[in-house]
Structure formats: structure tokens, C-alpha cells
Amino acid sequence: MGDCQITCITLSGTRSHDRITQIGNASVPWYLTTADAVQRIDAKTDTFYVMDASGRRANVGVVRPSQGLPYLRTYADSVWTDNLLSLGVC
């Protein structure tokens, strides 16, 4: 896949506890589970990013909480952000 732009997500859970379960790009199209994306990032086989409203790129990284499963989050200008949650639904 290579360097892939994420344009949509699928959420699971209640609104206060949303968890991204799938990422994708409807225009290409491709879709991956979060677990698959984490594995690809860890293996350095693929990179993922989103474009924010101002047209800036925010790379996607893996956050590993002390408890629970790893999850995806954007990283831009040395700050972890929530740009993924602003994307539309796949």
C-alpha cells in the first residue's frame, strides 16, 4: 500500500467511548481494521496520514496505553491530535 491517506473511519461503541475499528479511503478504495493498520505501522510496511481542514498533513501513529489495546491517533507538529475522529464514516 505504501503512504496512504485516510479519509474515513468506522466507529464502535457509545459516543462517549468511541473506538475506531476501521480506517479507509473511499475514493481509492481500501479499508483496514485498526489491528491491521497497527501491525503495518509497527512493521514499517505502510504509513498513514490525514489532511486537516487547512490542508496540512497529520501522520498517524500508534498509542499504547498502559491498559487496553493500542489505538491510532494523528501526530502533527510534535503534538498528538484527534484528526481521525473528525473524518466521515466509511
Condensed summary:
Helix content is 10%, strand content 47%.
The chain-level structural class is mainly beta
Q: How can the largest sheet be summarized?
A: 5 strands, mixed
Cα-atom radius of gyration: 12 Å
Strand/helix succession: EEEEHEEEEE
Number of domains: 1
Helix content: 10-25%
Number of strands: 9
| Low-pLDDT residue intervals, each spanning 5 or more residues | none
Query: Mean pLDDT score, rounded?
Result: 88
Strand order of the largest sheet: 1-5-6-7-8
Task: Give the strand content.
Answer: over 45%
Could you give the distance between the termini?
Answer: 18 Å
Q: What gross morphology would you assign? A: globular
Please, how many helices?
1
Features:
globular; 90 residues; five-stranded mixed beta sheet; four-stranded mixed beta sheet; 9 strands
